[in-house]
Amino acid sequence: MIVLLIISLAISAGTVIIFVRGIKTVRSSHNAIIGITFALAVVIALAIGIKFGICYEFHLSNRVRFNGVPIPIAVLVLEKDGWTDFVIPFPYLMYVVDVLFSVGIIVLLWIIILKCLMKLKSQKQGSLHNQMN
Asked: What is the pLDDT averaged over residues 104-122?
């Protein structure tokens, strides 16, 4: 259980760092379209995180199901007379971690794509400037 708590805190801290890096990228670009795409990426990530982290039930087999990705919040096992649930002791923290995980991944991908596009744009401008001289 302690390992689960450490992993969840590491995911949360990593997401906060990535989110702050994304905000710095938006502020340094001075472009409204980049800010809008960043906000859209965060909203989409929140929706995906809520859907798969909280609301979706994964069927591992006919007898085992679990809720929550990447950290399971509850595991359901089919026993003789019905489903038995095993819920972790701090489910609300895991809800937050599961949602933040998707935000961190999608914002990280957004930052990588944006940096590549900005690099290509600067290379094109540099080549046009060299052709003019």
From this structure: 86
Bridge partners, 66 (sequence order): 58, 75
Confidence band, pLDDT 50/70/90 cuts, at residue 127: low
Average pLDDT of every residue of the chain: 84
CA dihedral 32→33→37→38, nearest 10 degrees, is -30
Looking only at the bridges linking them, the beta strands covering 64-67 and 57-59 are antiparallel
Bridge-based pairing state of the strands 57-59 and 74-78: unpaired
- What does the alpha-carbon distance between residue 32 and residue 84 come to, in Å, rounded to a whole number? 51
Convert 80-98 to b/e letters by CB count within 10 Å (16 or more is b). eeeeeeeebeeeebbbbbb
Place 40 in a pLDDT band, splitting at 50, 70 and 90: very high
